[in-house]
Write a structure and sequence with these properties.
GO terms for molecular function: carotenoid dioxygenase activity; metal ion binding. Its cofactor is Fe(2+). One of its GO terms (cellular component) is chloroplast. The chain has 561 residues and is mainly beta. A hairpin with a 4-residue loop joins strand 17 and strand 18. The protein contains five helices and 38 strands. Helix content is 6%, strand content 36%. The structure holds ligand LIO64GT3 and fe (ii) ion. Ligand LIO64GT3 binds next to loops. The site of ligand LIO64GT3 has 20 residues, from loops.
Length: 561
Amino acid sequence: RPAGSSGAAVPGRLATSQQGGGKGKRAVAQPLAASAATETPAPAPVAAPALPAGRPAVVDAPRRRGGRGAGSGHAAWKSVRQERWEGALEVEGELPLWLDGTYLRNGPGLWNLGDYGFRHLFDGYATLVRVSFRNGRAVGAHRQIESEAYKAARAHGKVCYREFSEVPKPDSFLSAVGQLATLFSGSSLTDNSNTGVVCLGDGRVLCLTETIKGSIVVDPDTLDTLGRFEFSDKLGGLIHSAHPIVTATEFWTLIPDLIRPGYSVVRMDAGTNERRFVGRVDCRGGPAPGWVHSFPVTEHYVVVPEMPLRYCAKNLLRAEPTPLYKFEWHLESGSYMHVMCKASGRVVASVEVPPYVTFHFINAYEETDEEGRVTAIVADCCEHNADTSILDKLRLQNLRSFAGQDVLPDARVGRFRIPLDGSPFGELEAALDPEEHGRGMDMCSINPAHVGKKYRYAYACGAHRPCNFPNTLTKIDMVEKTAKNWYEEGTVPSEPFFVPRPGAVEEDDGVAISMVSARDGSAYALVLDAKTFQEVARAKFPYAMPYGLHCCWVPRNSNAC
Ligand SMILES: CC1=C(/C=C/C(C)=C/C=C/C(C)=C/C=C/C=C(C)/C=C/C=O)C(C)(C)CCC1
Ligand SMILES: [Fe+2]
């Protein structure tokens, strides 16, 4: 964590330097003594202002230029109203006293610029949410990440960089060659880091998206944007996996090569900014690499997925999105799983597998024989039955227009088995009956002590049907092949993030924390006992919170995660 960032709030620091002028309440200059770390009673919640006058107002009405969209819908799909807020949260139930640290959640929380509404869930500007727990109390906050893309959009009142589905309206007549140049130099790509948030081994907290320039360091206490994470190496690349594998000592990621289809596997030591090239996987099919939103590792291997949903340079350039956005489906190209040895960079297996669509790998581990030799890799993921339609379902118009129809495509825990004996094929099967979790499955976490190792439990979002989006929290038992489900009518819960109890021995000794947005506009951090999957407490925000994607846990008073 950067020097001076202690985990305790600094008494006397102001909640905001902005003065009100927008539609929200005016700023009240109030000491930020709200952290439970200060031992002082937490003050009442203070609303920060909406955007300052003269800048495009952030509105919560879902509409595109020229008219309102279909219904105002659920609070989860409405833009956050204020740029920032911090205050004590009302706690219902008993927060465990050992829960001492900060839960951070990142996600695209702002989908409107003035009266212009974005199309897709993944387009929104990044909103970081914080809940700090101490002594059974909770302090909440949220803040927009100050990416160049967000600041430019605010300053000019329009999209200025290429987002997931939005592209800037050309105001100069760049030739096709010019457009291509801005794409391949990366200058037109967004740095809107609205997807992941990770705590590095050295304590720095990094927000991520799929562009490398969108790796942004934030202060977990103030939620200040500290600046771009500059990689000091010469590896280059424009895009990488949104989900690096981060441990106390290292950081692994994949860099797809769109010119010569393949992936670079790279590793960075904690405490440095220098990635080192470990090895390369050449694609086996298709005109471009498969989309790698995430990938898993085992103790000795990196697993590189190559799915038939592939990047598409033509679609990257398009002004109007296709149903598959920047990607293309190439069933004929085959589906593969590659395995690289972490130590040598050698590809030790490359197998063809049944077609699959996944965004999130859950975990992977090695299977060994009686002599301890590794015979196969098992890799689990949230698998969408090789159906890409989930991407279109995540258009905001679809999410906002739910009227009781069951339209969420089925998903399952897909379990790959990749033999290491030179066989050309691997297997893919459901790890448990998908009915156990309502045939919805995404946004997963596990006990971090089990990353790359044999594990039993995963926490994810499942479905209580009919629904148009995952609306339950589910604990999957991979051994018993059962699930425990949490559901509350009208709510949209985000990724349940597992936080182990310090000193825990059992894999599920801890809590699962999820930010829940309710239809009535309430929002709360829900704390479930990870063993029983029963609610132990909820910490309520005094305002509506949009849906968000991924989370991390920053333990208190530690300079490392
Ligand atoms: C900005 C550019 C890109 C951006 C890619 C992004 C922001 C990808 C984000 C992907 C996410 C958040 C995937 C999450 C999936 C969640 C699912 C399927 C949940 C399902 C629920 O049931 C590129 C596309 C890389 C191109 C360059 C510019
Ligand atoms: Fe993700």
